[in-house]
Amino acid sequence: MQPESLFSLASTLALVSWILLLAFHKTMWIAKVLTGTTIAFFGILYTWLIATNLGSFSADSFNSLDNVANLFHSREALLAGWIHYLAFDLFTGIYIVTDARKQGIPIWPLLPCLFFTFMFGPFGLLLYLLLRWFKSGSWFANTE
Q1: In Å, how far are 50, 88, 94, 134 from 21, measured between CA atoms?
Q2: At residue 141, does pLDDT exceed 80?
Q3: Using CA atoms, how far apart are residues 87 and 93, in angstroms rounded to an integer?
Q4: Which CB contacts under 8 angstroms, 24+ apart, belong to 28-37?
Q5: Rg of the chain over CA atoms, in angstroms?
């Protein structure tokens, strides 16, 4: 399958998964289902892309910004980076929904946090941490 087709497939799957997360945010099973299907699929696809393109990596590939930028000249490496973003942004969204349910935070204040997590990852998580701090008085997330 061509990188462009995999990009479209992964992006569509991520969008559908985000819609499912929003639609079923009150259920306990949505986090398990999305982690066990979409996130697992992204993990497999990412691993395959990295394993089949190891030739473009070297020991010093991550020791400078220029070397990291050089990695992304390959379309396959760029796609692997995109899959990485999709997986971790969705996983962060799952965390936000799950933690908000525990904190008793309703979905409406979460929507901007989830939108920005979908679009800009860490910025959406920062918004959620601020919302969580405002609602519960607790900055540090309980990750146990």
Answers
A1: 28, 14, 7, 23
A2: no
A3: 10
A4: 30/94, 30/97, 31/94, 31/97, 31/98, 34/90, 34/94, 35/91, 35/94
A5: 17
pLDDT in the model for residue 13: 97
Please state, in angstroms and rounded to a whole number, the distance separating the CA atoms of residues 101 and 25.
8
Question: With 0-12 CB in 10 A as exposed, 13-18 as middle and 19+ as buried, what is 59?
Answer: exposed
The model's pTM: 0.90
Q: Convert the pLDDT of each residue in 33-76 to its tens digit.
A: 999 999 999 999 999 998 888 776 777 877 889 888 888 888 88
Given the structure tokens 């899959």, which residue do they identify? 83
As to burial, measured by CB atoms within 10 angstroms (0-12 exposed, 13-18 middle, 19+ buried), residue 126 is: middle
61 phi, psi to nearest 5 deg: -65, -25
The answer to whether 19 and 119 are in contact (CB under 8 A) is no
pLDDT digits (tens, 9 = 90+) for 93-133: 999 999 999 999 999 999 999 999 999 999 999 999 999 99
Interatomic CA distance for residues 107 and 18, integer angstroms: 14
